[in-house]
Amino acid sequence: MSPSPARLDVIAIGNAIVDVMAPASEEDVTRLGLAKGGMTLIDTEQAHNLYQAMGPAREISGGSAANTLAGLAALGAKCAFIGQVADDQLGEVFAHDIRAGGIDFATPARGEDPATARCLIFVTPDGQRTMNTYLGASQYLPASALDEATIASASVLYLEGYLWDPEEPRRAMRRAIEAARGAGRQVAFTLSDGFVIARHGDDFRALIEQGQIDILFANEHELAALTGIEDFHEGIAQLAAKVPTLVVTRSENGAHAVSHGEHVSVSAEPVAQVIDTTGAGDLFAAGFLFGHVRGRSLAECLRLGAICAAEVISHYGARPEADLAALVAEKVG
After folding, report:
1. End-to-end Cα spacing for the chain
2. Distance between CA atoms of 85 and 109, rounded to whole angstroms?
3. pLDDT score of 86
């Protein structure tokens, strides 16, 4: 039996995080002992110390899946987000920002401790972002917070690999997958980072083998980590045989996708200056998923992803600042 018409295009589950971003020198990154270009989980004390070490900063609501939804909503998609904030100032900031972007957000806030998650991001002159993430309240998303009817009403359930790390939201996401697949919907998953694969790669490989993932997003480093194969094309061939749609980004070298045997590559969109790579993968996923839910070809989906990624790396922050819908209409039609 065919699924009923979808009310939402995409519903996502992810970390509800406020990004705190500041420019930094290469020397700052070295002095603070940070892993340049990576993402490191930190505790409350580390979060306090790093914040004190930052220069003037901007606070912008973030979180990988939430960033993707911000891009999707800007393109005109109907979206909803599930994520846990605390009953504190940053929790109010996050809830306001995501709703102001036209995204449904109904997850109840929990108490004030632990605090709402935040990501302290040091941006070096080459545009690389070094992320230090305090997960706080986002680690405590319970399965009881899920509205399974809303999940079942979305064409695509989009899951953030970062949130697979804590046990409680991992259970919630497994339950969400059951709800989506039971309603005949698609499940999209982003691997997020190599450290997540190092910890939970067996889980991800099992989900793939069981046919639980319809669309898988990765970058070329995550592809190698998941497959254990360093050669890009060999890794693509091994994984594409197991996932209906595989999308792999390659930074300035563009992206490649395989869907039901069709292979398509796209070049990176030109950018006058790379200011900050934060959110590049998130916005690539936004463009691709928008094309997907609108029935665009695989090549068009990749091009939309590249356009959205190029916009977000041209300025600070992981949320679009330009009119994405107008930008896409100008470049693609």
Report:
1. 34
2. 5
3. 96
Question: Where along the chain do its domains lie?
Answer: 8-331
pTM of structure: 0.90
d(CA 13, CA 317): 20
Q: Report the alpha-carbon distance of residue 45 to residue 110 in Å, rounded.
A: 21
Q: How does pLDDT run across 105-158, given as a tens digit for each residue? A: 999 999 888 989 999 999 999 888 898 989 899 999 999 999 999 999 999 999
Amino acid occupying residue 313: I
Cα separation, 217 vs 188, in Å, equals 8
* CATH of region 8-331, choose from 3.30.365.10, 3.40.30.10, 3.40.1190.20, 3.40.190.10: 3.40.1190.20
Neighbouring residues of 203: CB distance < 8 A, sequence distance ≥ 6: 164, 170
Q: Which residues contact 234 (CB under 8 A, 6 or more apart)?
A: none
Q: Which of 230, 299, 220 is nearest to 267 (CA)?
A: 299
Does residue 212 have a pLDDT over 60? yes
Name 230's Cβ contacts closer than 8 Å, sequence gap at least 6.
Answer: 224
* 8 Å CB contact between 117 and 129: no
Contacts of 8 (CB under 8 A, 6+ apart): 78, 79, 80, 104, 150, 153, 154, 155
Residue 189 phi, psi (nearest 5): -140, 135
